[in-house]
Amino acid sequence: MYLLCTIAASLITFLFLKWMKIRRLCMDLKRLDGKTVLITGGSSGIGKETAIALAIRGARVIIACRDEEKAEKAVREIKTISHTINVHHMHIDLANMRSIRDFCKTFLQREKRLDILINNAAMPSVLDWTDDSFSMCFGVNHLGHFLLTNLLLGRLKESAPSRVITLTCSAYKYQKLDFQDLNYNLFPFFTYCRSKLANIYFTQELARMTEGKGVTAYCVHPGYVQSSWTCHYSLLFRVVMQVIMFMFFVSCEAGSQTVVHCAVSDDVVPLSGGYFTDCRPAALRPFAKDSGVARKLWEASERLVKPAA
């Protein structure tokens, strides 16, 4: 009897874990020939898998990364898997506003189109600061992509219909923004949550501002993914998280599916400003749909990074 109970419990646990890791696949195989895609942090994880999927569909893919050596290796691998040579990389450091401005200047000189911008790169819960004295999570996850998108918005409009996809996380629900301290950096996990909430407000306000101008915007929660984010932490933490991720988290390829869906599907076009997970729109907490807060954050972000400067 004990043996049967053990076997039954093991089977139930196995099936539960399998169920936890099931994700919808993007079934839309629409080609992207002639389209240019820019992906931040595309040298690994979800970004790299997204790059592969869109390169396979014929897009010209540019991955923007800080680590040149890692980016060059990723480009070679993406080319091999996607059987295309139309994959490139450019240097950017989202923790440095000057680097972002230099990147955009070079990009606009080189590239005549930008059809899909994927704001994928992100910093996990770390207690650190950017070169411009912003908390690392808020500075990279929100302000860096805010500045990048604003500086490239003209090219996105010229290439319309175009799309902006920003990766967020369901952890947004654990915090609200404090406009007296947007640069909050006391508890790293809370800082991360706030940055992910900022991604959602940013997407909503961007959708409002570009309505009728051929640019649509979406934010995506990819699920909890087996990526390399633990590299910022201690060895013990990495070991523990590797076990947890193996048991409960999905692969990077599975995590990229909703990003790819929002990049290629015609079904999402009327849903600009929406929040997506598992290749379909999902509900947000009421406080995350406050258009007044979204607009206030946009104005505050403009004051912080001065995109028009």
Automatic annotation (TrEMBL):
Keywords: Oxidoreductase. One of its GO terms (molecular function) is oxidoreductase activity. InterPro entries: NAD(P)-bd_dom_sf, SDR_fam. Belongs to the short-chain dehydrogenases/reductases (SDR) family. This is Retinol dehydrogenase 11. The lineage of its organism: Eukaryota, Metazoa, Chordata, Craniata, Vertebrata.
